[in-house]
Amino acid sequence: MYFDFTDDAKDLAAGAREFLTGEYTPDYVRSVWDADGPRDPSKWTHLAETGFVGVGVAEDFGGLGMGDVEMSLLLEEAGRANLTEPLLETGAVVAPTIADYGSEATKKEWLPRIASGEAIVTVRLGDAPVAVDADIADGLLLEEDGALHLVGADSFTASQVDSLDLGRRVFTVEAITSSDTLLTDDADAYARTFDRAAVATAAWLNGTGQQVLEMSVAYVKEREQFGRPVGSFQAVKHLLAETVLQVETSRAATWYAAYAVQHDLADRTEAASVAKSFASDAERLANTNSLQAHAGIGFTWEHDLHLWLKRGKALEGAYGTASWHRDRIASLLLDVDQS
Amino acid sequence: MYFDFTDDAKDLAAGAREFLTGEYTPDYVRSVWDADGPRDPSKWTHLAETGFVGVGVAEDFGGLGMGDVEMSLLLEEAGRANLTEPLLETGAVVAPTIADYGSEATKKEWLPRIASGEAIVTVRLGDAPVAVDADIADGLLLEEDGALHLVGADSFTASQVDSLDLGRRVFTVEAITSSDTLLTDDADAYARTFDRAAVATAAWLNGTGQQVLEMSVAYVKEREQFGRPVGSFQAVKHLLAETVLQVETSRAATWYAAYAVQHDLADRTEAASVAKSFASDAERLANTNSLQAHAGIGFTWEHDLHLWLKRGKALEGAYGTASWHRDRIASLLLDVDQS
Amino acid sequence: MDLNPTPDQQVFREEVRAWLADNVPAEPLPPLKSSEELPSYKAWERTLYEAGYAAISWPKEFGGQDADLMTQAIFAEEYARLGAPNRINTLGLGLAGPTLMVHGTKEQQQQWLPGILSCDDIWCQGFSEPDAGSDLAAIRTSAVLEDDTYIVNGQKIWTSQGRYGDWIFMLVRTNTDVPKHKGITFLMIDMTSEGIEVRNITQINNDAGFAEVFFDDVRVPAANVVGGVDNGWGVAMTTLSFERGTGLGSHVRFQKNLDDLTGIIKARGVQDDPRVRDKLAALHVRNQVFRHNGNRTLTSITNGNPVGPEASLNKLFWSTMERDIFETGMDVLGPYAELADDVLDGVDIPSWHKHYWYARAACIYAGTTQIQKNIIAERVLGLPKEPRPAAATPAGSRSTAAAAAGTDS
Amino acid sequence: MDLNPTPDQQVFREEVRAWLADNVPAEPLPPLKSSEELPSYKAWERTLYEAGYAAISWPKEFGGQDADLMTQAIFAEEYARLGAPNRINTLGLGLAGPTLMVHGTKEQQQQWLPGILSCDDIWCQGFSEPDAGSDLAAIRTSAVLEDDTYIVNGQKIWTSQGRYGDWIFMLVRTNTDVPKHKGITFLMIDMTSEGIEVRNITQINNDAGFAEVFFDDVRVPAANVVGGVDNGWGVAMTTLSFERGTGLGSHVRFQKNLDDLTGIIKARGVQDDPRVRDKLAALHVRNQVFRHNGNRTLTSITNGNPVGPEASLNKLFWSTMERDIFETGMDVLGPYAELADDVLDGVDIPSWHKHYWYARAACIYAGTTQIQKNIIAERVLGLPKEPRPAAATPAGSRSTAAAAAGTDS
Fold this sequence. Notes:
The complex is a heterotetramer, with 2 copies of chain A and 2 copies of chain C.
Chain A: H1 7-23, H2 26-34, H3 42-49, H4 68-81, H5 87-101, H6 104-116, E1 121-124, E2 131-132, E3 139-144, E4 147-152, E5 156-161, E6 170-175, E7 182-184, H7 187-222, E8 224-225, E9 228-229, H8 234-262, H9 268-294, H10 305-316, H11 322-334
Helix pairs in contact in A: 1-4, 4-5, 4-7, 4-8, 5-6, 5-7, 7-8, 7-9, 7-10, 8-9, 9-10, 9-11
Chain C: H1 7-23, H2 38-50, H3 69-81, H4 90-103, H5 106-118, E1 123-126, E2 142-146, E3 149-156, E4 167-173, E5 184-190, E6 196-201, E7 210-221, E8 225-226, H6 232-241, H7 250-267, H8 274-302, H9 310-333, H10 349-361, H11 369-380, H12 400-403
Parallel strand pairs in C: 1-4
Antiparallel strand pairs in C: 2-3, 3-7, 4-5, 5-8, 6-7
Helix pairs in contact in C: 1-3, 3-7, 4-5, 4-6, 7-8, 7-9, 8-9, 9-10, 9-11
């Protein structure tokens, strides 16, 4: 039993932090917020060149040959940095799904292009009303009648909807599926893909929570009222202690779930629901308490805090809310015959 | 619009506080805990002599001629004192129910004896598994097929069950009802009686909450750690501030509900559910936080705090838990056509 | 206890209701985003003024109706129920005016009260500063007397209506040699004075409700001091005590929020989910409890009791409730919560977003949740104050809780 | 990341499971209410000892198995899963023994370790005092040297196993002229010494788990000092650091509590109520999160990382979870919650009550929730300590959070 990451994975994450915080500064994210159209496509290519998009793609196809576990560390970093590219969809969900369920031809067609940054593939699963970046996507992964389809850009249309997070470009999509677009009708493939997306979102939320917590800690150390740092007041201390309790413990649950998805363990679905429900609630607490810790200044558009607060609110409800996942767990606990 | 009590009611409550805290000391309550059989019957007579049992009984029948509103103030004092007599059942529920729904003959038979302390009548309504003091009761008020029956001592049997609150003597009961025992088959009479019991319990719980809060305030002012009263630490302050917020605001909601029951207002049921759900939750918070404020010493049998903690736990679930009442409110909000 | 209105109250309620029904603009006024929309709001204030409804609580001598608190509550409830336009001069009518009635000279009252009542002058509040939020007494904006003119320098922040204000009532530091509470003066400043610069603060809900106001050698007549030089802390406490009145009828507003929440629940088709029902009911319970406590307080004040630190219970209660109402809506919206578009039939999600973020600020402005809990602990429960730190601290910090009781950030 | 056990670990787990299945008494031991039930618990300890399972974590030289933490966790999980009897000498095996291994002399180790291992000597802990709970360094029980004997006077409280203890490891004050942390000595006292009086503390769940211990001129050989005179604070910190080990396998115990909760839910017939389902699922989620974090910590320690203030995250997590599990059970019981009788088929309500009250104490003992949050804020997040009050305060109070990290009240 070894519940930790390999040195390679830790190096990857450390590199990702350096790269992402350098490239995705608040100023850059604000430039995305302010832009009307799609982002500069070179950002995606650049991201892929680092290897981050292809973390889960086999080395034969140009990837790093790692898996969901390593990707979950990377997604934490993406959450911290507030990355504005579809790494979660293309890198964390679509690539491993194609690798796990696609035909050899499909793998050869898509995986090298994904790993290299040539292709963006977006996702719409479950009750999600929208898919991100669908207008620039080369493909769309979606479920129909329990089967997974991978639809090329010529077979779906996208219509933009505003998001409260201006860093997210989201679209309703209409797709034409057929036997040609079928990726797999394996009964469990869709379920696993949904779990994978939920776990990836949990990892991202953990990064968001860490980031807003750290910003809060830095702020309350510096901000003085009544002649002392506000962070020296117990009320503020305990607010942030309660936050780190949830945000930090959430991480191990997500890592376990990533492991369960990667190895398709028997408790995969339970683990995914544990991870996403806890991560959503943890991020929500961090979201609430970080604004409280920043008080007035955090409520201004000019302060960067809300860049993360809004991404957090957008992702809390993605791939199953906390209560949706608890409902699923309750079914496993109470409705299934336990042997 | 005058949302306050009359001077008479305030005088009554002040007198009740003096009387009850004098008679029902922790030492006395402990003697009840330690006793095997019924309590000294003179305690009930003595209580009735003060007029408290007959607060809601008309003066013609030997009562004080007040109503649910005044009784709710009295029940707060009973909760504060941890009264070990069935004032809630006999005085707050049965007496006004007989007054509101009984025939003249029934009123004449029962109300004078109730007001004078000669008769104890207990209650079992709804899904309550037990009735208090049924072995010494002269009567039992219960519902059957939507009708209210008032059953004499010769027509019901009682079998004792242990309570976690040793100050409560509770019994499962078996009663024989007939047209002779019928109090009323008014369709709304049972509903109003249940609401009345729920509101009375809310008032009692508000008293319990106030009492454990005040004990906590006194303790944390006096207890020193790290060279200062623990009550000067923000963490402790905020714990008790959160408690008083719920406990104090709960009172007005209960008073309103008592008024709504007394005057049988259109929103009576809603008001009762508002009161009981909020009071149960408020007392629960006070229960939790007062033990936390007392820390180790509050966890000893020797300290008096648990006398109230246990009564509180017993009453939280009586006449509808908080979630039962919220369910009822949800039906009023979502299922009934709102005009 | 008698919860029936008096005949007079009933008549007043019906009069107000009828008048509002006749006069409230059929189309809601456009959101007040810039000075472009200002005239329509001013016109509405003029309508109220002409009907005698601008400030019914004011004494008749100043143009009010001498309305008691119950009557004010009735007006506020009906106003909220009809969804009448947001008032734009509440800081003048509710704070500056009443403060002048207590602390102003006859001349000052004659100078400013008529303009407030008619809304010819919109007033804003200059209390908070970047380094004086919860710790209001730490203000540093200075006013130095030269002959009969004060020279004001410094910065205010979180100034509501700062963008449209004609006048600002300010706390300024006039003495740095005394404990911090004792060197503060309450000063009225014409916002058109030279040297004033107003910068909008865009909130995270993309509204611009607040402003920063910068003062660079602004010249203010000494006659504009209200309540005496270096006596501003006491005057400010009077001003803040009037904030209590602003909550009248707010349970009606929260009921509207709850109605909108019910709309979201139905649009999402989860009205039969017991978890959602439980949450809605719990919020409804809280608003009912809030309403009853409001009535209790109204009666208490009517009976001549002062409003004490219990005001902090009220603030803590509604601010957390409001936040939870909107957070619950976001939860129910689930995957739709991020969509700032009309993608859900009958639900105005963008408007919910605006309110959601603003509701979160409710736990910050007018005394943070943490400050309210301190006040409750120390002044309602009588718990000991925190010991003063050994390190040097400005004098007067003993009354930190009191100081921050009603600050605007 | 590799969550599969090694072949050795798998073999060990199967061995332990088989051995426990063969040896755990078929009938649960009677609750340890008085010394009457003690022999059966001692017999069980003897069985463990003879099988080499008394203290697998101890070094082989002291009679243990040198088991690494993973192996210890496996043992603890299987032990909890089989519902084996409560251990009665955990304070000896888990705290006194390991402390002696670090700070004791060869002679002291030889004197006490064998009796601990065999459970011939039951040990209890004498740290907390009536006025030294969270503020452990405030202890006042005095030990004054006369020739080569300490004369001990004072009182300890919250002494687990005080009723049955043969030995007690104590913190005593040996110097009153220095800052409070610097005048404390760690002392071993024979509980049969003259002048010791033990009074049971009955808990509100009517169990007698703790005792008060009074010392009246108790004579203790100076040779019983462990780790040096006036050096006891450091020794105590070592002792408290071993408390971390006590959590091994506890997720299995919480899973049993959750199973019982499920039993209550089914007995009340509310297993289809989505509100109840949501609560059960939320608790299950928390225990799974707890389990994963436990494994993360195991790996971290195995990799040689120290256990730091993160231990407070662990304590805060499980203590609030345990309380919520039992509170939820009380909620679900509703009107049955007060009935201390077997009135609900298949549910042992009296046992639930016992655990319910004890679970509430979990937020108090071993560092209250408030103390844990202080530690987390100051030592995990690095927030500034509270300023020292201006009023005179015992020296050394800077490290209050650390001091109280693992106190037993």
